[in-house]
Write a structure and sequence with these properties.
The chain is an alpha+beta fold. It is 24% helix and 24% strand. The chain has a domain of 79 residues.
Length: 174
């Protein structure tokens, strides 16, 4: 019988030890629960730095620290918005992965950074003059540059051999 009481005594001591251990762990975790930091699973980082819903004219300008030479540019296209503002699209032959946009006398590079030291003007629907220091380069688009949606089908612009739909209807009515 003495052995039985000794076993019960040892089991009781071990049980009390584990109970005290769990209580101290619970107290430690409750103290750190007040300082628990909740972090989101994913944080979106706008790496382009430009809000796509705000016009370029309303944004702050941060000059870029980029060495750019206008002699390495090739003119890709000229666009006109509904207000008549023209923008020229350039690609650099220097191996950069991004293009450049020239609008309102300013050249914009990667992440909407203004490239300082380059001025110029869009002279027509086919010509852009860029000035960098003492260099002036006049860029011209080819007369018929290939690609989808380059020239919409408007009266007088139909390729040779195709009739304009409006012209065909006029002939049928007569």
């Amino acid at each position: 019988m003495l052995k039985k009481k000794a076993k019960e005594y040892i089991i009781t001591i071990i049980t009390v030890f584990f109970c005290l251990l769990s209580v101290t762990e619970a107290a430690a975790s409750s103290n750190s629960a007040g300082a628990l930091e909740v972090r989101p699973v994913y944080i979106f980082e706008n790496k382009s730095g430009r809000d796509p819903f705000r016009p370029r004219s309303m944004q702050d300008e941060f000059p870029a620290i980029v060495e750019v030479s206008i002699t390495a540019f090739s003119l890709q296209g000229i666009t006109t918005d509904s207000l008549g503002t023209k923008a020229a699209l350039f690609r650099s032959r220097s191996g950069t992965d991004f293009g450049y946009i020239f609008i309102n006398g300013r050249l914009y590079g990667e992440n909407n950074n203004v490239i300082t030291g380059i001025a110029g003007e869009v002279r027509s629907d086919r010509e852009v003059l860029l000035i960098q220091g003492d260099r002036e380069v006049l860029f011209r688009l080819e007369e018929f540059q290939g690609g989808p949606n380059i020239r919409p089908d408007v009266p007088g612009n139909a390729p040779a051999g195709q009739l304009n739909n409006n012209a065909g209807r006029q002939n049928e009515d007569n």
